[in-house]
Design a protein that fits this description.
alpha+beta, Multidrug-efflux Transporter 1 Regulator Bmrr, Chain A, nine-stranded antiparallel β-sheet, two-stranded parallel ribbon
Length: about 200
């Protein structure tokens, strides 16, 4: 039996520096669920988080049963956007649209993930299980940076990332992407680490 750390397998895409840099991210399988509104106050957001993790662990268990290989469940990720991406602001959370997601290994392709999602949702009465989908997602060409500290202090980091993108002769494309490397229930706010990523296109 092998124990696989997917964050190390996909190291280039789950580590970042505190200075912005460019990265290319291919499509990978994910569990995803959509929502809208301020994540700090939305019960829908909380229900989606409470749904994704049990499903991710159920996929992990199914893969372990099928292959004998265990892997570490990946961190929560979020795509954030507004109707006009050029006006996306961390100060206007109530206007946000979002997708929460957890990356899965390629071995998940051998499973009937939608059937598993439906079964586990029924067994555990997961609040957003009937909205979860299984599909591939990749940022493609992007720029990213590591933010250290609480989510509420991300604005300067996002501004620095956008300035880097402009200096590279690029423009924003697609959705603001965050990867939550720290568990806010276990890590002090000042020690939290979040990768902030923005897909780009030639200006």
């Amino acid at each position: 039996m092998a124990s696989i750390d997917l964050k190390k397998t996909y190291r280039e895409h789950y580590t970042a520096r505190t200075t912005p840099s460019r990265v290319a991210v291919p499509p990978r399988p994910y569990l995803l669920v959509d929502g809208a509104g301020d994540p700090n106050t939305s019960p829908v957001y909380r229900g989606c988080v409470e749904t994704l993790y049990p499903l991710a662990y159920a996929v992990r268990s199914a893969i372990k049963d099928a292959t004998g290989d265990a892997y570490t469940v990946m961190p929560l990720e979020g795509l954030w956007w507004s109707d006009d991406i050029s006006r996306f602001s961390v100060e206007a959370k109530g206007d946000w649209l979002w997708t929460l997601m957890i990356c899965l290994p390629d071995a998940s392709a051998a499973l009937d993930v939608p059937e598993l999602v439906a079964r586990v949702t029924g067994e555990r009465a997961l609040p957003a299980g009937n909205q979860v989908r299984y599909e591939h997602y990749g940022d493609g060409e992007a720029a990213q940076v590591l933010h250290r500290g609480p989510y509420a202090t991300e604005a300067p980091t996002v501004e620095a990332l956008h300035a880097f993108i402009a200096a590279e002769g690029l423009a924003l494309r697609g959705r603001h992407h965050e990867i939550y490397l720290s568990d806010p229930r276990r890590v002090a706010p000042e020690r939290m680490r979040t990768i902030i990523r923005q897909p780009v296109t030639p200006s």
